Amino acid sequence: MTEIPTASRGGYQPPDPIEVPPLYSWPPRPVAILRWITTGLLFPWGLVFIALALASWHFLTPSLDRMASLEIWWVALIWLRNAALLTLVAGGLHWWLYIRRAQGQAYKYHTRWLATDSRKFLWGDQVRDNMFWSLVSGCTIWSLYESVTWWAYANDLIPQMEWSAAPLYLAIMTIGVFFWSTIHFYLHHRALHWPPLFRCSHELHHRNVNTGPWTGIAMHPLEHIAYFSVFLLWWVVPVHPVIVLLTGFYQGISPAVSHSGFDQLMVNGRTQVKAGDLFHQLHHQYFNVNYGNTPTPLDKLFGTWLDGRPESLAAFKQRWRSQRRQAGVPNT
């Protein structure tokens, strides 16, 4: 029987360091790049969100002619669809990992469970707090961006393109969603760590050091406005509406997976599916590293990449303590 890794005193530590994807290697490594795109970038969650976008466009989105006028009924339907899909993914992961505890602490980054008695969170409960900010603020602002995009499409105010007109271009743009999202995330996220913006908005998300599925888009409304502005690219770059939906789902739902708090999701005690993102988990723990995501390694470019190796963590902590001493701040 295969031994299942369990959380140590400091939580589960993947055996391999976080590396820059082969897409950025020189000289180029075509086979490695193709393997990374298919098995790293797309499988399985990228394909899940592409499938959700296709199904939602055909079955869960009003026709464009009905969205030519901004009306509350169809905007509410967009919100209900987004909230339901987020609840399906985040709620399903939470039930499996935190309520049923189907795999115990195997692959869990933290040994502690989510807070149920903390003044940091609304009602003292981390999960209820995260659900409130995700559904009430997150889904609302996400749905408003999406709805305005549909209204603009329906009134020919912004360009769009049919698959029959440019299938290769749209296939490339479909993959491009994942890169655009991660570039956008680094840029606005780095800005949110400017102390005035951090104090008035981003601090709310950073209360979650030990993250769970509902933490993903548990943010202040001001941060949601910046976070979901990812839609604005499609107001000037022509794409098919399915790509607009994919953008929303990747931005709104995939953080439930990456913030799950577990490196791997186990099914039937054997099958493992990649879940949590150690790269971003380290950002929640250490604050001023790993502002972006690995598909677009801007952190490597700007010197804020932390790869998770014990020696890297030790060196980072030493630098942090040294900086605090130089600033006259006592280490606690």
Query: Largest sheet, order of strands side by side?
Result: 1-2
Approximate strand percentage: under 5%
Shape annotation: globular
Intertermini distance: 43 Å
Beta-strand segment tally: 2
* Overall radius of gyration: 20 Å
Q: Structural class given helices, strands, pairing?
A: mainly alpha
Give a short synopsis of this structure.
It contains 12 helices and 2 strands. The protein is an all-alpha fold and 332 residues long.
Question: What report would you give on this structure?
Answer:
This protein has 332 residues and is an all-alpha fold. The protein is built from 12 helices and 2 strands; from the N terminus they run αααααααααββααα. The chain has a two-stranded antiparallel sheet with strand order 1-2. β1 and β2 (271-274) form a beta hairpin. It is globular.
Which secondary structure elements does this structure contain, and how are they paired or packed?
Blueprint: H1 30-42, H2 45-59, H3 72-99, H4 126-154, H5 167-192, H6 195-206, H7 221-227, H8 241-252, H9 254-258, E1 264-267, E2 271-274, H10 278-286, H11 298-302, H12 310-326
Antiparallel strand pairs: 1-2
Tags for this model:
single chain, 12 helices, globular, 2 strands, 332 residues, mainly alpha
